[in-house]
Amino acid sequence: MASSLPIGRASTSRWWNRRGVRRLFWQLVAAAAFLAVLAWFVGNVRQNLPRMGIQFGFDFLAQPAGFEIGENLIGFRPGQSIFRAYLAGMVNTIHVAILGILLATILAMVVAMARLSPNWLLSRLAWAYVEVFRNTPLLLQLLFLHITFAQVLPAPRAAWSPVTGVFLSNRGLMLPALVVQPAHVAALAAFVAGLAGVWWLRRRARLRQEATGIRPSTASATIALLLGLPVAVFVAGGAPLALDLPALRGFNFQGGHTMSPEFASILFGLVFYSAAFMAETMRAGILGVRRGQIDAAQSLGLNRLATLRLVVMPQAMRIIVPPLTSQYLSLTKSSSLAVAVGYPDLMRVYTVVTADTGRPIECIAVVVAVYLTLSLLTALAMNVYNRHVAIVER
């Protein structure tokens, strides 16, 4: 009895002709080829290094480090392990990257709004900022800032003091430091709990809107959780507020918090450079929202700020976030230029450890692993946020 299915359809129904099977097959082939090349490379390295009298291994990470890291956040001291030295450099890199991303995002939003401003002078100034910083090399900007902080600014005894307790000299920027007390920690914990509460309220309001078409207001509860709860906890703890002010003693300042010229150079250099690119990304995203959406919002009586917050930005974010992710990744990787201005980041530790141990392959492998992990975590966080702001079609 002849089959009722056409010959062509019967042939394509076989399991090896299915699209999913073919896709999985070629992915496995690509993965196998990559692993084969990697195995060949590792085999060559392990075979040739002993022939050249070079040891391979990561046991050197447990050796004591005979150098000092002048500026670190984990209290590294000479004599501790090389692994801890790498950890200190990694923390410094993460410190610069996180602060750079936050400050660059804020500055980029301000510049983007200025570029779109109807004020001609403000718009031209923002345009000049973008063109200057986008079209000059980042390394040149870092060196310029470092020379400015280290040589142009006055000595500590003639330091500039624009505000009481704030001093600017060639030794860095001296700021008042908050003396942390238990009430501050409790207030911070209350703020984090308030964030969790706001997230739950907004999620519940969104579900209510999807079910009934009416979104309940969460403004009062948000203010109470984010502002009222931490303030109440802080006041209940006695509201302690003690500042450690910097003071000139001898030839330098003591007390307070000091931002070194090296840290200021790499931080502000990354912020000014990256914000110029981010500002154009944000401006393009805002301009990507159709003019009819803005006209409709204004016809409903919304002012300029409400239109921007409720109508323009929610739609612009789905355009802004993907390229903004690339800018965040670029800023994180560009922090490796800190070695040019003397800031002890991960690359600085790498150069010193390589010179001391003679293990260039292992040292660069550690650096690659750290930067790869930071980039993947940044991309993961931004992808999660991108899915959150994306418009879901019904």
Sum up the structure in keywords:
394 residues, mainly alpha, MetI-like fold, two-stranded antiparallel ribbon, 12 helices, transmembrane transporter activity, transmembrane, membrane, transport, General L-amino acid transport system permease protein
Q: What gyration radius follows from the Cα positions, in whole Å?
A: 28 Å
Q: How much of the polypeptide forms β-strand, as a percent range?
A: 5-15%
In DSSP terms, counting alpha (H) and pi (I) runs of 4 or more, how many helices?
12
Main beta-sheet annotation: 3 strands, antiparallel
In N-to-C order, the SSE pattern is: HHHHHEEEHHEEEEHHHHH
Give the CATH H-level superfamily of the domain at 80-153 and 260-389.
MetI-like
Please tell me the CATH architecture of the domain at 80-153 and 260-389 by its name.
Orthogonal Bundle
**Overall mean confidence score, pLDDT:** 86
- The assigned structural class equals mainly alpha
Question: Which of globular, elongated, flat, extended, rod-shaped describes the shape?
Answer: globular
Strand order of the largest sheet: 1-2-7
Distance between the termini: 48 Å
Number of DSSP strand runs? 7
CATH class of the domain at 80-153 and 260-389: Mainly Alpha
Summarize the amount of helix as a percent range: 55-70%
Low-confidence stretches: none
- CATH topology heading of the domain at 80-153 and 260-389: MetI-like fold
Any overview of this molecule?
The chain has 394 residues and is mainly α. It has a domain at 80-153 and 260-389: Orthogonal Bundle (MetI-like fold), CATH 1.10.3720. The chain contains twelve helices and seven strands. It has helices at residues 7-12, 19-51, 82-115, 120-134, 138-152, 182-212, 219-236, 261-287, 291-299, 304-334, 346-357, 360-389; strands spanning 167-169, 172-175, 177-178, 243-244, 247-249, 252-254, 257-259. It has a three-stranded antiparallel beta sheet with strand order 1-2-7. Strands 3-4 form a two-stranded antiparallel sheet. It has a two-stranded antiparallel ribbon with strand order 5-6. β5 and β6 form a beta hairpin. α3 packs antiparallel against α11. The radius of gyration is 28 Å and the shape is globular. The mean pLDDT is 86. Belongs to the binding-protein-dependent transport system permease family. HisMQ subfamily. It holds the Pfam family BPD_transp_1. It is found in: Cell inner membrane; Cell membrane. The chain crosses the membrane at residues 24-43, 94-114, 135-153, 173-201, 222-243, 263-282, 363-385.
